[in-house]
């Protein structure tokens, strides 16, 4: 066979490739049309019965030279690519995605805006234990110009024998003290039936790491207007985290703040591993504000300042830290909460780093 012949055959192959591509593209757009109709009807897009039917028909018409298995394999790849296309398409349409909304969501909490480009601080005890305890912390927050106070009233504890929180009484304490010191309150809710009640007491409903995929809780939080701070699950991927946020936003509550709080790894020197890459990933992928909880990430006090600096340098909109007047006797997380002088120093160190504005001056 002459070189000229090979050249001609290759040209033929090139043009067949282009024809195949154009047929595959045409096929893909029909698949998408079907998917759109199915989405409107609320039925699932992947239909294994239909896939089997198509493969059987292809094999029936196969006259070679490909073996039947080769034909099945080739077309399965085509089907898979089409399905992937639909997945990408639905991701593009996530409400929490930047592709859906380019501008940052800013959550306004009293005089503080979370997500407006100026970082802020959320601080307070792990658990609400008494009015005196919360008041002591509130005073320290006020002195440092911090307006967002956290405190757990419903505590999701690993052991049922551990302190479970003061419940509604804890919410009442938080509200009373917060009003006295003009603070905004963030507190965790663990049950869908308590969401309505919580809206009477708190400014932000926290959904904890252990409940990130409690879908009924997410839906209940999506049905109210109170902003939600959603913590990343102990082993949740970015995709799972954003889908959890989507549960809330898709119900109409657009005021969602994402919180990276460390993930479980094999490392034992920290309670969790702060996944710092989560911050720029979430900021890139989503328009929602991102908070980094340095306390639960580290589970120890000595590295909170560098972790907070890292979070701010990575683009976090806020840093969360647990503060207790006397951590040694705290009813939860005694080993990781910082006392008030340490909190004052924490704030001083962050201001000095230039990564954080001086809240006191702007008071
Ligand atoms: C908390 O912030 O009080 C808490 C329990 O944290 P997490 O859900 O991240 O463990
Ligand atoms: Mn805690």
Report on this model:
Keywords: Transferase. Residues 1-90 form the Chorismate mutase domain. This is 3-deoxy-7-phosphoheptulonate synthase. GO terms for molecular function: 3-deoxy-7-phosphoheptulonate synthase activity; aldehyde-lyase activity; chorismate mutase activity. It comes from Shimazuella alba. With 363 residues, this protein is of the alpha/beta class. The protein folds into 2 domains: 3-93, Chorismate mutase (Chorismate Mutase Domain, subunit A); 107-362, TIM Barrel. 46% of the residues lie in helices and 11% in strands. The chain has 12 helices and 10 strands. The chain has helices spanning 3-41, 48-60, 68-92, 131-143, 168-181, 195-201, 215-222, 238-249, 278-285, 294-298, 304-313, 340-352; strands at residues 107-109, 112-114, 120-124, 148-150, 184-188, 204-207, 228-231, 256-260, 290-293, 318-322. The strands form 2 sheets. It has an 8-stranded parallel β-barrel with strand order 3-4-5-6-7-8-9-10, surrounded by 7 helices. A two-stranded antiparallel ribbon has the order 1-2. α6 links the parallel β5 and β6. α1 packs across α3 (68-92) and α7 (215-222) packs across α8 (238-249). The longest helix is centred in the N-terminal third of the chain and has 39 residues, at 3-41. The protein starts with a helix and ends in an 11-residue tail after the last helix. The mean pLDDT is 95.
